[in-house]
Design goal:
Helix content: under 10%
CATH class: Mainly Beta
Number of helices: 2
Number of strands: 11
Shape: elongated
Radius of gyration: 18 Å
Mean pLDDT: 92
Largest sheet: 9 strands, antiparallel
Strand content: over 45%
Low-confidence stretches: 1-7
């Protein structure tokens, strides 16, 4: 691929490299929607959702760009089958009743040298605001003639805001599962 092909996928706005305007689909096989939560107050458990789909529409005015993501909560994987079954149950995600977690952006803003994506996260029918810190990792052509974009995003939320409040007190103080959840997202997008 030539340098010209690579630079066509980006532009500079206010001294910052951003993607060219267009609509891009999430490439689920090259993306990761993960989380970290405290366990027993002494360690952190990591998990991820395998079933992720959605799109990003990059607008000419970058701050008017939109993000729509759907996650299949039944695809949760914390590397423990018993825990994953419990997370699918009504104690947590109630996947039989609520088969989709959704994130819809409501705004994008430049904050210093970074980007903040504001949006509504819907879990178990409850929608609450969640902001993510976003980093544009770049754009490139792929071997099949397409254009790919890369983004990282992170944020925090209180799981109890969505009714994910199951817990158990420990004799030594504290609880089995922490309330704070750290989100870690790596997204590769394909131009449509």
């Amino acid at each position: 691929m030539s340098v010209t092909e690579t630079t066509i996928a980006t532009r500079t706005v206010d001294g910052t490299e951003v993607p060219v305007a267009g609509t891009y689909a999430i490439d689920a096989s090259h993306s990761h929607a993960g989380f970290i939560v405290r366990h027993l107050m002494v360690s952190k458990v990591r998990g991820a959702f395998g079933g992720v789909s959605g799109s990003v529409t990059v607008a000419e005015d970058v701050t008017a760009s939109t993000v729509e993501v759907d996650i299949d909560p039944a695809s949760i994987d914390t590397r423990d089958a018993g825990r994953d079954e419990h997370l699918r149950s009504p104690d947590f995600f109630a996947v039989d009743e609520f088969p989709t977690i959704a994130y819809r952006s409501t705004g994008l803003a430049r904050v210093g040298g970074d980007w903040r994506l504001d949006g509504e996260l819907t879990i178990k029918g409850e929608s609450r605001p969640v902001s993510l810190d976003v980093e544009f990792l770049g754009a490139t052509g792929d071997p099949w003639g397409g254009t790919r974009l890369g983004f990282s995003a992170s944020g925090e939320l209180d799981r109890e805001d969505w009714g994910l409040s199951w817990n158990q007190a420990l004799e030594t103080g504290g609880v089995v599962v922490g309330r704070k959840v750290t989100l870690e997202i790596e997204a590769e997008l394909i131009a449509l």
